[in-house]
Amino acid sequence: xxxxxxxxxxxxxxLRRLREARPLVxxxxxxxxxxxxxxxxxxxxxxxxxxxxxxxxxxxxxxxxALVVNIGTLxxxxxxxxxxxxAAAREGGIPWVLDPVAVGATxxxxxxxxxxxxxxxxxxxxxxxxxxxxxxGVRAGRGVDADGASAEIAGLAASLARTTGAIVxxxxxxxxxxxxTRSFAITNGDPLLTRITGAGCTVTALVGAFLGAGRAPLxxxxxxxxxxxxxxxxxxxxxxxxxxxxxxxxxxxxQITPEELAAGAKVRRV
Amino acid sequence: xxxxxxxxxxxxxxLRRLREARPLVxxxxxxxxxxxxxxxxxxxxxxxxxxxxxxxxxxxxxxxxALVVNIGTLxxxxxxxxxxxxAAAREGGIPWVLDPVAVGATxxxxxxxxxxxxxxxxxxxxxxxxxxxxxxGVRAGRGVDADGASAEIAGLAASLARTTGAIVxxxxxxxxxxxxTRSFAITNGDPLLTRITGAGCTVTALVGAFLGAGRAPLxxxxxxxxxxxxxxxxxxxxxxxxxxxxxxxxxxxxQITPEELAAGAKVRRV
Amino acid sequence: xxxxxxxxxxxxxxLRRLREARPLVxxxxxxxxxxxxxxxxxxxxxxxxxxxxxxxxxxxxxxxxALVVNIGTLxxxxxxxxxxxxAAAREGGIPWVLDPVAVGATxxxxxxxxxxxxxxxxxxxxxxxxxxxxxxGVRAGRGVDADGASAEIAGLAASLARTTGAIVxxxxxxxxxxxxTRSFAITNGDPLLTRITGAGCTVTALVGAFLGAGRAPLxxxxxxxxxxxxxxxxxxxxxxxxxxxxxxxxxxxxQITPEELAAGAKVRRV
Lengths: 270, 270, 270
Hints:
- By secondary structure, chain A is of the alpha/beta class.
- Chain A has helices at about 5-10, 10-20, 35-45, 55-60, 75-90, 105-115, 130-135, 155-165, 200-210, 215-235, 240-255, 260-265; strands at about 25-30, 45-50, 65-70, 95-100, 125, 165-170, 175-180, 185, 265-270.
- In chain A, helix 3 packs across helix 9, helix 3 (about 35-45) packs parallel to helix 11 (about 240-255) and helix 10 (about 215-235) packs across helix 11 (about 240-255).
- Chain A is globular and about 45 Å long.
- The relative contact order of chain A is 0.17.
- Chains A and B meet through helix 3, strand 2 and helix 11 of A and helix 6 and helix 11 of B.
């Protein structure tokens, strides 16, 4: 049974606006997923730019519609660029998304995220162990893998949302998105999304795309989670290998219509 | 209707030579397209090397057949490597290609291109807004996207070619290649080339491959534009999604024969 | 005719253990293959992490099951991270693999490999010209391409294994793996593996995965060579283009069962 909840979650309008606005999304992201992120943004209808030098990141973000910061392969110069760009984004009223990849794994990452949170991200998107690490400051998880505990940490996510003022999106077998008061659970997706690198980073980038298209943060995060989840369901049809799945995911991101997004969404309030 | 203009533009011989020579193409390119560029060069028949540390770029270029410099994700160390390598290339008579990605977007990029032009690139390849920015020093465009104005800026491209001594190649709905006196318009291609990241960067790298195989600059640039355009046409058959299109583009780069290149070319003097 | 040599080379057990253990493999690898390496490790059943900042590489390796170091796009900061991580790996008894990409091409690479060898890699994996360059200190080859001379340098590889205490794996038309006393020749594979970038780097990463799953070094290297070779054979069926081949290689890495690996192996003692 599929929800028909376009009115409730604004999904149809969100994807329509994204494709009309074709927002310029500035990414300071990791070296592993840079190509996939650019292609996913293009496929979905946005216009990606990868600009990560400290010499130009703050200047560039001022012409972007949204900023995406992902610490997956963090380096000191990239962190410098992230701090400059997020400060400029905050100053300029440009929405920005933080993906605290493997934040619990090293002190370098924990310190970086502590500093980045001071520029008040619009949305934080991570897996359960990353959100746990951000929320508690405690080392959690063993690295970059998602575990299945997302649903259980909904309370922690809501608490983090209230503390930071950010929308918090937690991806896993069940995705959670929350502003600290309202929370949605999203069950779109397929296990193959965990067998390729960068599915979570793609969600993060698409949150940026929906923000750049002018959607409110809770709606933007919800739309990105549903879009990648639904694209994953379609790409997984026939149970292909992970290579074929990865390219089909790009195909489906381009092919899903606003109407299909709204019709295929599996969202419920929690 | 297809042109049969091998004699006129030397396309058949160009691709034959490329596959015989298997030239070593040294790339200092951007992080987004590094994998795709290496695979496109391999598919077309060249031998790619990505060497971008300042400590070794100048040493390495001396054993290469051509150098490709792309500022898509420019950093200060990469710029240092580019300046050293282009100086060594110029000194050693090694042809080199400049791709001024998003040059109009930031001061860092404009300054970098100004310095790189002093090492006299053999070919400059950009989209209309990039060529406009190089030619006029004026901020143009909003980033890395091509627009459809290539045909209109043919005059500006010819002027830039005369000023710099470089062949100038402008990609868009209609591609222009010019030495300042002779200009060709190329209409091979497909709109899907704008829905994946790195199609322009692939053209730039293949200009390097044809230069490395000993082709004259105008012929090398023409051959690269036709090859990617024709590969794009074939890869787009059946209107696949952008993921499938991207991999088919690599397939077709490998499969197109010299005879097919010459027969499928859509080139005219302008 | 296929070997049925699971008992002799431990291949069936190796792949079974890899998929059970899902080892965390820490990679400090090159920018060209980072995405492919992560996806290949995921496809085969391991858990990849790409962590290459000097600030965190040594800390991170202590929670990993194996470390992979690849100098393909070496930079000074990455070298600093490699030296710190390999020292920590050696101290912590964590196995590590060295891929000396294009080591003969520049002094920067030769010096880096000389320093890295002091941390005593568990396995060294290269093509013939790279292994020759490491073994002799002599400039050899013109860059990153494999040549077909692997079989001829079996003696040199065995000598390098005895000198360094590392297992040495040489990839080419015939792969060689040796501990200096015992040597195996592996003839799995397909020429298409040389038409995509990163096939050798994938072997290196999978050596790390088998080491991380607790396999002895000679067995780990053998299993990785057979797995990529067999996956290449299957991916090449029907002679696809290199783009299609690349994605099918990921598919087949995920789909090959331990039993198929043992049954499809073409290994002999030499």
